[in-house]
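Q: What does the predicted 3D structure of Receptor-like serine/threonine-protein kinase look like?
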Amino acid sequence: MDINNNPWWLLFSLLFICLSLNSHVSNGADTISANHSLSGDQTIVSSRGIFVLGFFKPGNSSNYYIGMWYNLEKVPELTIVWVANREKPISDRYNSVLRISDGNLVLFDESKTSVWSTNVSSTTSNSVEAVLKDDGNIVLREGSSNLTEFLWQSFDYPGHTWFPGMKIGYNKKTKVNQLLTSWKNKEDPAPGLFSLELDPKDGSNQYILMWNKSENYWTSGAWDADGQIFSKVPEMRLNYIYNFSYVNNENESYFIYTVKDSTMSRFIMDYNGQVKQMNWLDGPKSWFLFWSQPREKCEVYAFCGSFGRCNEDTSPFCDCMHGFKPKLEHDWNLEDYAGGCERKTQLQCGNNSLSNGKNDRFLKSPNMHLPEHPQSVAAGSIEECETTCFNNCNCSAYAYDNNECSIWSGELLNLQQLTQVDADGKTFYIKLAASEFSSSKDNKGIIIGVVVGSIAFVVLLGLVLFVYLRRRKRTIKTTKAVEGSLMAFAYRDLQNATKNFSEKLGGGGFGSVFKGVLPDSRVIAAKKLESISQGEKQFRTEVSTIGNIQHVNLVRLLGFCSEGTKKLLVYDYMPNGSLDSQLFHVKDSKFLDWKTRYNIALGTARGLVYLHEKCRDCIIHCDIKPENILLDAQFCPKVADFGLAKLVGRDFSRVLTTMRGTRGYLAPEWLSGVAITTKADVYSYGMMLFEFVSGRRNFENSEDGTVKFFPTWAANRIAEDGDLSSLLDPRLEGNADVEELSRICKLACWCIQDNETHRPSMGQVVQMLEGVVDVTQPPVPRSLQIFVDNQEHILFFTESSSSQSSQKRSNTSAASSQTKSTTSSTSS
């Protein structure tokens, strides 16, 4: 047969040629051998199709890199996890090549110059091959006969991503740290300023974050092997897909971790200076941020660069001080602020004659977090302090606080604008060129015109207001606006609005609440505060702080009254009252259905997240209970009294011990006397979740002198993984989503763990209620463990139970003894 004239043979030959040009190369789809290479759009893929290695271009950049990313078939969002030529990009991927050369994996650019290499020696270069493994490790080995010994591996040279199975540690012999290094920005994988490394101190088992390899701005805290967490990252306790190990020997110390199942998870050193734990969620097809540290971007050292100012309440977080502009505008557009800011006009210091006799001046910047590295100088007044800085051409700024003068030379780092009521804010004076200030002579005519016009406007406005006020039948003459829209009410006006406080809506440890109607027909709830002893200035400052807090799940503060010992807070009125009235006291068909209860639980959690994590100052509520959850006309929950912990101040501990109606919501740490954190609110919230399920109080007094304690019964059923429908409010008749019921019961158990570090944060609570994060099986809290073996209703025996029969007493002696002490402590 003449194969040259056979059309089938020609077709087979063409097919063979096409297959030989397939983008997956080498003798294996995951391997680059000595006879093969990568170029253009060619890639190799790990054996199970998890990772891909090839050329890529980040964002709108014109540069190309050899890098590794998750296979888009599994993670449709391009996620680069390792880059070879971070510092030496190429411009033409089609004429560049990655291949084995002299026993190394080498990247040659379009001019055939080596721009990256594994830089190892091999005696049998013809058998060397590079393999992309399913754990994200690229290994260089001598042939396929030895699968465990590597000439080189990418795990020894991490980029910004930490994979399971990869070491991040410290070599004690070479004194070299194996660290994660951030990208410069989201379009430039060049090494950035931020890195994560093991603290090089001998025997240290904590990680540190470094800026420019010189400033340590965050530490993880020591490793707790028993708890499997770093002391300053308690969020790790809730992620059960990880298993961390710490190794410390004479040669090295390092951490390594593994993950359960086939979960795709990674840690990254982000270009914004935060270390982040990311998990891939198949449902929404996106990366889920489980935690990040530091929690706030402004806590990252020099986040906004020199002369840049960070502000958590603005977007973007960084801007330039007055008289400055971004040094690299393009980088700022990529959220890379490291270049900082530069002066719009250079200072005239040392040569003021060049500016027509106009001297440099100082701009006052109030409520600032002062820059790093101040220099203290002797000065008896603020004027002397300013003169000292003015006469020093290297001085950029000064501050005078508590009769101490501080000056800063050169560039200013770590500037932060605080809120207007931040107690830690300092006044700061920065040196600017004279041209940055308006000339009084040039503006004299403008000022005169503005003054004359303002006087005429005020006179006209006064006449209009006079006529209007004369025609009003009712008015609140002494009420005025302060701190924005917050109103300062006169006591007698609130007396009139509430009909001398005649319609009481409820009460608690901080005072009673009364319904009222303002002259403009707005319905209000006025709370008369008790045991509030602050001075006038402190009270107004703290009230203005609360007044600036706005969230859909927080009751809005309209205003306040402060006249001597008469102090009141005025809120929006909630027509559906408090949660306890809807949950415990509704007998007819108007009781809350399951969907409404679940939404109330979720909304309440979101309100607490705002207080704990989103406010300038973390606000701990300290009194979470159904009475303090109010419901609007649509049953949207509003957390009330969320500022009282801050308002009460130093006296709060005393006030709390005399509080009524909160037994059963107090976290154990209140009773042990340790410092209180946001986890105290989490505990109270967890106790309240049990009441969402049962529709009754956790504590119920019985006629025989016992107290039924629902959480113990519920924890028992949850631990047994039994039918949770028996825990439901009987009024619901079983009408509840089974998955939601299981989720909320398990979450309640997690929230009431005895050790506060075992409890989730409120942010994690929201994620669990939303179904974003799974809720694992919780342990029974130790304080409840003694009752686990009891049947059905668990009994707290009180003093009145002493008349019970000796048989009953003998059967429950252990429980009775423990319960008496617990009840006594709680009551106190």
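A (community wiki): The structure tokens above were generated from the sequence. The radius of gyration is 34 Å. Residues 63 and 91 are 5 Å apart (CA to CA).
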